[in-house]
Every structure is written in C-alpha cells, then in structure tokens.
C-alpha cells in the first residue's frame, strides 16, 4: 500500500490552514497555556505551536515519535511560522524574515550548500515571507515575490526545467504569492491567483489532466487562494470558497464519494475557509468553524469516533479555527485557543475522537 511506502508531511506557512510553526530552547512550559496558542503544526514525529507572544513550542523529536503526554517545551521566539517537515527536519520563519533549520537534510533541503545533519537551528535564508518543507525538497517565498527551491529533483519537483538535484536555493519563479512543496512535486500561486505545478504526477496529483511528470511549472487553473498536498493527492481552495481535489483516491481521501483516482481537479466541498491534506486523508474547515474529514482512518486520525475509512466528508469537530493532520494523528485548534488531538499520537491523546491534550 502506498501509504506505508513513505511517511511524509508537507508544511507551509499559511497559518489559517495547517499552521506550520517552530524554533528552539529547552525550557518546559508546565502551564501550557491553551489560551495563548495561535497556530498549530502536526508533523510525522513532532508537533509545534506558536503562542500569541510569538514564542514557538514543540513536542516529540524524530525518530522517537510524538508523546502528547509530555508538555511542550519552548524552541524559539519571534516566530512567524514553523514547518514540522515529516519529522525529519524543521523550518522556522521568524518575523525578521530569516529562515532557520534543524534536523536531517540528506537531499539538500536546507539549501545551505551541504547535507550535514544539524542538531541546533542554523540560519539558511533572509528576506523570506513564507516557507514550505516536504520529504525531499523545500521552498521559500521571498519578500520580492520570487520563489526558490532546493533538494531532490529526480522528478522535476523543483521546477528548474531539468532533473538536476541541488543543495542550494535556486530561483524558480517570480510574481508569486504562495508556495507549497509536496512529495516530489510543487505548487505556486501567482499574484493573479493562477495555480502552477511541477514534478511527480504518477497519480494525477498535479491536476493537469495527465499522469506525466513535469520539470517546469505549468498552469493548471485559476482563482485559487490556497493549496494543500500530501504525497499523491492535492487540494485547492478557490476564491469562491469551494474545494477541489485530484490524485490518488484508494482510501477516499479526495472526498468524492468513491475510491476512484482522478488527474483533474474535481469540486468536493463548498463554504470552506481552510484545507489540509494528510496521510491519505483530507480535512476542511468550513466558514462556520466546523471541521470535516475524509479518507484513511486506521488510527482514528479523522476523529469521527471510528477507525473506518471514509469516502466522503463527515463532520468531526466544531468551533475550530485551524486543523493540522500529522502522520497518524490530527490536531485542531479551537476558538478558545485549546489544542485537541485524535489518532495515534504515542501518548495520552490516543483514540478515535478528539480530546483535549492532557498538558492543558
């Protein structure tokens, strides 16, 4: 099964969606103030939050796994966004526009000219407004609207018009307002709200009507406000608040009511304000604050009270402001600033319904 072939999670800095967040320190917050949390990010083996004072906090560490019974510890201050990229590495975007990285980057995902594992955060970029980290590559969006990419390029996921991998950031596009790196493929949204894609497309995850890979960005649709993708399926949120999905669908992760994969975006929901693609599942946050989920649910990560896969969206929570799926679990941030979890988190929050994290 493809789900077990690779464990990856894609992060990006659009905080209304999956809320990538993090930095570094060693102090433990024993009070773990829920009411101060403004953003969440669930990775494969760690979870991150940003508080309203712009401090970033994390729990779990690759490859030991997440343990939700352990309080978050502070990992940074002055944080704007954090990306828990697959649990193998983390990216931090600070309010001053600098990007910091820590962890394993054997394929050059840090863009600093080497592939040496680092155990403390190092600065890798400046003048950045958004970040996105994936299993094999990473992207940054600079303040001037240029998109840059680094890492593995076997399938053209960097969009450099070739298949040459790199360990240094290369400019790949301009006039860009958002970037999303996924498993060997990438998305950019341009200033005119057009969506452009490149890279691996074996399951139709690029949504261009083919299953052919591309090594340069091609336009696939318009009127897009955000993108979320995981391994081999992709979601887009259009300006009219409709959600569209494409790619692999064996577990019902597209929410189309069946398990038929497609290579073109199909509308699957409306009245939505945020989207989050997980490990063969998908989540949407509707304009009324309700969270809906579909797809793979073996560990109860959909939070619907069962461990049964779904082929269409079912409501799993209310009064939410963010949702962030990890590998085997999912986090939601409720309107009161409290973080809830469902699925296999390796700790006290395990189960098939959302429960308040115990440290709160």
Order of helices and strands: EEEEEEEEEEEEEEEEEEEEEEEEEEEEE
| Structural category | mainly beta
Oligomer: single chain
> What is the count of β-strands?
29
Strand percentage lies at over 45%
Largest sheet: 5 strands, antiparallel
Which descriptor suits the 3D outline?
globular
Contiguous runs where pLDDT drops below 50 for at least 5 residues: 1-10, 12-35
List the helices and strands and how they pair.
Elements: E1 11-12, E2 37-42, E3 47-51, E4 56-59, E5 73-76, E6 79-85, E7 89-94, E8 99-103, E9 118-125, E10 128-133, E11 137-142, E12 147-151, E13 166-173, E14 176-182, E15 185-190, E16 195-199, E17 214-221, E18 224-230, E19 233-238, E20 243-247, E21 262-269, E22 272-277, E23 281-286, E24 291-295, E25 310-317, E26 320-325, E27 329-334, E28 339-343, E29 351-356
Antiparallel strand pairs: 1-10, 2-3, 3-4, 4-5, 6-7, 7-8, 8-9, 10-11, 11-12, 12-13, 14-15, 15-16, 16-17, 18-19, 19-20, 20-21, 22-23, 23-24, 24-25, 26-27, 27-28, 28-29
Task: Offer a few descriptive terms.
disordered N terminus; mainly beta; four-stranded antiparallel sheet; five-stranded antiparallel sheet; 360 residues; 29 strands
Structural write-up:
By secondary structure, this protein is mostly beta strands. Helix content is 0%, strand content 48%. The chain is built from no helices and 29 strands. The protein has strands at residues 11-12, 37-42, 47-51, 56-59, 73-76, 79-85, 89-94, 99-103, 118-125, 128-133, 137-142, 147-151, 166-173, 176-182, 185-190, 195-199, 214-221, 224-230, 233-238, 243-247, 262-269, 272-277, 281-286, 291-295, 310-317, 320-325, 329-334, 339-343, 351-356. It has a five-stranded antiparallel β-sheet with strand order 1-10-11-12-13, with no helix packed on it. Strands 2-3-4-5 form a four-stranded antiparallel β-sheet, with no helix packed on it. Strands 6-7-8-9 form a four-stranded antiparallel β-sheet, with no helix packed on it. Strand 10 (128-133) and strand 11 (137-142) form a beta hairpin. The radius of gyration is 18 Å and the shape is globular. It starts with 10 loop residues before the first strand and ends with a strand. Residues 1-10 and 12-35 have low confidence and may be disordered.
């Amino acid at each position: 099964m493809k789900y077990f072939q690779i464990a990856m999670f894609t992060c990006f800095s659009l905080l209304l969606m999956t809320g990538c967040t993090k930095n570094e320190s060693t102090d433990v917050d024993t009070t773990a103030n829920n009411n101060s949390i403004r953003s969440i990010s669930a990775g494969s083996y760690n979870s991150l939050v940003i508080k309203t004072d712009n401090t970033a906090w994390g729990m779990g560490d690759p490859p030991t796994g997440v343990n939700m019974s352990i309080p978050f510890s502070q990992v940074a201050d002055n944080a704007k966004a954090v990306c828990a990229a697959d649990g193998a590495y983390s990216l931090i975007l600070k309010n001053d526009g600098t990007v910091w990285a820590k962890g394993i980057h054997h394929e050059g995902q840090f863009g600093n000219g080497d592939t040496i594992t680092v155990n403390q955060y190092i600065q890798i970029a400046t003048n950045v407004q958004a970040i996105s980290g994936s299993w094999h590559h990473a992207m940054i969006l600079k303040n001037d609207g240029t998109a840059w990419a680094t890492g593995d390029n076997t399938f053209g996921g960097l969009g450099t018009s070739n298949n040459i991998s790199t360990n240094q950031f290369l400019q790949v596009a301009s006039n860009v307002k958002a970037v999303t790196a996924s498993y060997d493929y990438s998305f950019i949204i341009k200033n005119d709200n057009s969506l452009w894609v490149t890279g691996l497309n074996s399951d139709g995850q690029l949504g261009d009507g083919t299953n052919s890979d591309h090594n340069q960005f091609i336009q696939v649709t318009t009127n897009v406000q955000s993108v979320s993708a995981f391994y081999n399926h992709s979601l887009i949120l259009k300006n009219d608040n409709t959600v569209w999905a494409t790619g692999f669908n064996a577990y019902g992760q597209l929410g189309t009511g069946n398990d038929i994969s497609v290579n073109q975006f199909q509308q699957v929901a409306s009245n939505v304000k945020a989207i989050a693609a997980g490990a063969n599942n998908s989540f949407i946050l509707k304009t009324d604050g309700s969270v809906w989920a579909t797809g793979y649910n073996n560990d109860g990560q959909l939070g619907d009270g069962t461990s049964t896969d779904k082929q269409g969206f079912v409501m799993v929570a209310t009064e939410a402001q963010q949702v962030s799926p990890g590998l085997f679990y999912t986090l939601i941030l409720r309107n009161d600033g409290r973080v809830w979890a469902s699925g296999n988190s390796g700790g006290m929050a395990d189960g098939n319904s959302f429960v308040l994290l115990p440290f709160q």
